[in-house]
Amino acid sequence: xxxxxxxxxxxxxxxxxxxxxxxxxxxxxxxxxxxxxxxxxxxxxxxxxxxxxxxxxxxxxxxxxxxxxxxxxxxxxxxxxxxxxxxxxxxxxxxxxxxxxxxxxxxxxxxxxxxxxxxxxxxxxxxxxxxxxxxxxxxxxxxxxxxxxxxxxxxxxxxxxxxxxxxxxxxxxxxxxxxxxxxxxxxxxxxxxxxxxxxxxxxxxxxxxxxxxxxxxxxxxxxxxxxxxxxxxxxxxxxxxxxxxxxxxxxxxxxxxxxxxxxxxxxxxxxxxxxxxxxxxxxxxxxxxxx
Length: 291
Description:
Layout: H1 2-31, H2 38-54, H3 62-83, H4 93-115, E1 130-133, E2 136-139, H5 140-162, H6 164-174, H7 176-181, H8 186-211, H9 222-232, H10 237-257, H11 262-277
Antiparallel strand pairs: 1-2
């Protein structure tokens, strides 16, 4: 029972990592850029929701604050692409990586200045609630994280496979020049991908904050999410989610049964092992070319 509880808790954490990793992969597929501020987007989205619900002057209902925070981060993601990333067109990928790292520092500084650098808790309607099932005590917040992630995964699948906008995003990610000649507004699509990634990051942040306290440096969880994306296969949306789940479970199990500090390096040791055995990741989409 103890092991099952560890696995469920690990799956809940892994869902958060997976949602952040989805943002990494979507931006990479659409623009071939890596947004190292994705974890900080997650953190900032959580703080926006916290500010809307916990601040004495606002005190909005939680269910009203959530969509506002998600929309705000979507707008921020769109604005970052339009005003910053698009101006880097023609620059090296290293320059964009450095730019997004700097953006992450700015977001962490802004969050600390506005809301404090001390850990704070997000007030939710289900805080402290639990369900006992077969001798296993499951936190409602953990169940909610897993359920929301499953629902989002299904919605994203139908969005990318059944809607015109989703198909256009896939086309632009696979071949930008061909998509442009087919009349697809590639630049606008890329901005929408950044907006969608920002919204996903906000959802991940709210789910994470519902499970425990947050502070600005929580944005550094993006490093684990990056590892999850690499484990799953950088370019595979299902792989990003699976990579996050694997890291979440491994982290919890090694924390309980491993030596002190092993859980901190376990995700990166796993990443190293996967890259040695399968360099493209578990769900590699790399195809061999015939000469």
